[in-house]
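Quarterly update, task 2.4: fe (iii) ion-bound model.
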Amino acid sequence: MSILITNIKQLLQVHDSNVTIVKGEAMKTLPVLENAYLYIEHDTIIEFGKMEDCDGLYPETTIDATGKIVLPSWCDSHSHLVYAGNRTSEFVDRINGLSYAEIANRGGGILNSAKLLQKTSEEDLYKQAMERLEDLIKMGTGAIEVKTGYGLTVDAELKMLRVIKRIKQDSLAKITPTLLAAHAIPEAYRKNKSDYIKLITEELIPEAAKLNIAHYLDVFCEDGYFSIEDTEAILKAGKEHNLRPKIHVNQFNILGGVALGVKYNALSVDHLEELNDDDIAAIKGSKTMPVALPGCSYFLSIPYTPARQLIDAGLPLAIATDYNPGSAPSGNMNFIVSAACVKLKLTPEEAINAATINGAYAMGISNMYGSITRGKKANLIITKPLNDYTEIPYAFAHNPVESVIINGEFR
Ligand code: NIG
Ligand code: FE
């Protein structure tokens, strides 16, 4: 199977050499080729260039992209795609004045989703998540990290892992699974949290490692959830089983989770709605990607990640949806790119870098995804006719995507 896309108005994120991350000042640059072509064979980007140099290619299919923009599909590095049902009643409670913490303290929140997930069959969970994923693919997502975390028992967490494995096998989109057993303290362990930590470190992590589905380990490091000591115990156990951290930190409070994540060579530290100079200093010089989740700030009406401080300090930044039923019930990356511009004050170039190459980095896949580079996977967005790529974030809540190519297949 070979596809040639011709007359591309703007081909974005083109790199001759295989970049895997962009940081600081360099995030302001988004390499663009005007009036371009792109040639793919099977699932791989083979060639691209200016239309005037498009010669000697004999594709099976040609797509005319006159007036349209082509870019790498979005890499959503933080999602809770697998969950059961929804939490609309809590949404209304929050409109009526209750906070996320107040709802959680009444037994709502993550525990509410866990109760429902434990009762939901593997088949049903798979169907619900696949339906969501199909919607996201149409909106331009070509790679997505998916966490467990609504199981909160050994059985239910392993059930989630098996569901994620099936999605990974069946979907054309690239899926990276993360074990998030430490998402909340289950009701039964309220009075003896240390027993739940033990269950995670001594049973769940070794069992999950045996299944070899997840490569990453997450902890919700937050007041009322997992302290710094809890988080360290869990990361330590993960390290023994080759699970690299990608952790929830600084959503409501600064506990020191950023420095702890860096100490354990976290691939990413996510949320960061609260941030101080020590956090920025800790990330400097590390291999850890800070990840902002503006959909969560929007939905919960909490502060937005001070992204400018991070980028202006020379650090990289990724943006992701945090798609989940409690704090961000939307997986639309187009909205996230727009919100990053409007609320985090990223330029369109920075936002697109954050949602493609840096998103791929935060999933550990940027050697194969996130840029238009020869040899990388053919995961592409073809937009509706647009005058310029800045219209993607500008027209917030519109869908700029006309079609997608996922793993070399046109959709
Ligand atoms: O990233 N903060 C922890 N986890 C999710 C919310 C999960 C939920 O409310 O169900 C988040 O915001
Ligand atoms: Fe999350």
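Highlight for this quarter: The mean pLDDT is 97.
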